[in-house]
Structure prediction request, 209 residues.
Amino acid sequence: MKAPSSVKTLENFGRERLSKSFFMRDFLYSEISQIEGIPNIPDDPELAIMAGKALCQNVLEPIQEQLGRISIRSAYRSCAVNAKGAENKNQYNCSRNESNYARHIWDRRDKNGYMGATACIIVNSFIPYYERTNNWAALAWWIHDNIPGYSSMSFFPKFAAFNISWHEIPKREIYSYIEPKGYLTRHEMPNSNGSHKAEYEAFLSDLNR
Prediction:
């Protein structure tokens, strides 16, 4: 599949169905693309579709099925869009391209040749609980226990939005930019294994009222 180069071919690319609920078009919007006038279109559409399907089918769809609608804040970035974001890092908070291969840049494999994809999402049903408690970790632990396909999560203060990734070699790690910043868990940490149900029972109770 060639990179879309016309309205028609981009429309067709956007219609690629990645899972029951998600289409490729859902992941192409970018504020950097809009403001800087850089098309957010993959160089390798087939790889972007494969990575996107894995992210949607193994991670996003299961979350939405169990917790209700999720909102996509940002997701796919072309190399050109991400490079502009990295160039203006203080304004756009993007890592350099090589660090984002198999993350936000879906159509590039990482340095080890593995495929991956990242989206920044909000779980809408979690907002009331988070705004009342500031306990972002409740959602993080729920996903850790219930969504085995995820690779990494990074949480942000506004609405507890978070980057969530799928990767061929999953890391199973959770990081927070919410104070106190740092890792909640990583595969080598003792708290990575076992059930963490006690950490999210209150959230589930609110959800089921």
